[in-house]
Amino acid sequence: MPGLWAQYALYNRRANEMLYAACAGLSGAEYRRDLGAFFGSVHGTLNHLLLGDTIWMTRFEGGTHPSTGLDAILFEKFEALRAAREQMDRRIEHFFADLPSGFEMRDVRYVNNAGIESTDPLGVILPHFFNHQTHHRAQVHTLLSQLGHTPPVLDLHRVLRPNPT
Predict the structure, then answer these.
(1) Which of 4, 35, 24 is closest to 129 using CA atoms?
(2) Which 8-state DSSP code applies to residue 16?
(3) Is 70 exceeded by the pLDDT of residue 164?
(4) Which residues contact 132 (CB under 8 A, 6 or more apart)?
(5) Which DSSP string do the residues of 85-99 spell out, in sequence order?
(6) Is 123 helix (H, G, I), strand (E, B) or coil?
(7) Where would I find the beta strands (DSSP E) of the chain?
(8) 76-106 burial: b if 16+ Cβ within 10 Å, else e
(9) Do residues 118 and 110 touch, judged by C-beta distance below 8 A?
């Protein structure tokens, strides 16, 4: 299974690169326009996605993350958010490229954003981690369409092709 998580980490990075490239073409007003998504705008959704990855990666690495609202804005400017996203994606790839033996068989203990102490098997949390990314990228994909922009094709098998077409 560790090879599978590394593949998902690679997909995550490439899909984010493609999505951010598409979002770079938005005007400031489009980028921040509240279109009724769970986190309102492209800006809010991309910030949430980075926050979620930050929280989970900190937990995977054995740390704790302070409770914040899940709608916290980590970066106001798109370029700063994009740079932080790129750094996070490198962190994710590095971590999943060399998982300790049996990592996915362990449990993770944490305090969630509601202040509740939880213990969950990594066999459930790791798929959640990557599914959460895909879920919110899909929301941004839809927001791009609603704004009249062509969203990128983010199907896993297409993004991971050696020569994507």
Answers:
(1) 4
(2) H
(3) no
(4) 49, 52, 56
(5) HHHHHHHHHHHHHTP
(6) helix
(7) 107-111, 117-121
(8) eebeebbebbeebbeebeebbeebeeebbee
(9) yes
Contacts of 56 (CB under 8 A, 6+ apart): 125, 129, 132
Q: Output the pTM of the full model.
A: 0.93
Question: Regarding predicted confidence, which is higher, 113 or 126?
Answer: 126
Coil, helix or strand at residue 117: strand
- Give strand pairing partners of 37: 40
CA distance 114 to 69: 9
How many residues are recorded in the chain?
165
Say whether pLDDT at 121 is over 90.
yes
CB atoms under 10 Å from CB of 149, counted, come to 15
> 116: number of CA atoms within 13 Å, CB side?
4
Q: How far apart are CA 14 and CA 28, in angstroms?
A: 24
How is residue 1 written in tokens?
A: 């299974």
d(CA 159, CA 15): 7
- Packing angle of the helix pair 42-60, 78-97 (nearest 10 deg): 30
